[in-house]
Amino acid sequence: xxxxxxxxxxxxxxxxxxxxxxxxxxxxxxxxxxxxxxxxxxxxxxxxxxxxxxxxxxxxxxxxxxxxxxxxxxxxxxxxxxxxxxxxxxxxxxxxxxxxxxxxxxxxxxxxxxxxxxxxxxxxxxxxxxxxx
Length: 133
Ligand SMILES: [Zn+2]
Fold this sequence. Notes:
The protein is α+β, with helices and mostly antiparallel strands. Strands 2-1-3-4-5-6 form a six-stranded mixed beta sheet. It has helices at about 40-55, 75-80, and strands at about 5-15, 25-30, 55-65, 90-95, 105-110, 125. Bound molecules: zinc ion (ZN). The site of zinc ion (ZN) has 5 residues, from strand 3.
């Protein structure tokens, strides 16, 4: 709960990877209870995966809030994103609450710099977010 970072998982149709639309959002407790980092509660993560399996979905990304900084992956986020168990197809949706209004941006984070082309030395590419009903 604010001012701690909030977090959760994005679920989309199984087997489509990064091109599939998000169909469901599962809020999950921030086990780190921090306003600077988030850690998806392992039980919440397991419940979300079970829900996804039961509904023909899979985890396609993660959402979290930045309560004091811009909607851009932090150094900690990037460390997490490139861990071997985190699929590189995941969307990293970040909501910043630092400016008095919510700013929503989504990113792909690659395991190596230059993955998205020579102008992307950081290994981070911003994605377009389309909000539909
Ligand atoms: Zn972050």
